[in-house]
TrEMBL record:
Name assigned to this protein: Uncharacterized protein
Region Disordered, residue ranges: 59-78
Length: 78
C-alpha cells in the first residue's frame, strides 16, 4: 500500500478546519455558553473553515489544473 488515503492538501485543509472548530468551541465554552451551544458553534466554524482554507491553500502542482495548454492556430473552426 504505497498510496495515501488523503492528499497533503486535503489533510492540511481538514486539520485547519478541525483546529478552527476546536478554538471557536473552546472560546464559546469559556464565554459561558452551554456545552451543546459550544459544540454547535465549533461545528459551524469547522464547516465554514473548509471552503475558506481550501481557497487559501494553493493547489498541488502535480494536478496540473492551473496549467493551460496554448491553443493552436486554426483550432477554433473545428
Amino acid at each position: 500500500m504505497d498510496r495515501s488515503l488523503l492528499s497533503m492538501r486535503a489533510t492540511l485543509v481538514l486539520i485547519a478546519a478541525v483546529l478552527a472548530g476546536a478554538v471557536v468551541g473552546l472560546l464559546s465554552a469559556l464565554a459561558g455558553d452551554g456545552v451543546a451551544r459550544s459544540v454547535l458553534c465549533g461545528l459551524a466554524a469547522a464547516g465554514g473553515a473548509v471552503p475558506l482554507v481550501n481557497q487559501v491553500v494553493t493547489p498541488d502542482h502535480t494536478e496540473g489544473a492551473s496549467r493551460r495548454q496554448p491553443s493552436r492556430a486554426g483550432d477554433d473552426h473545428g
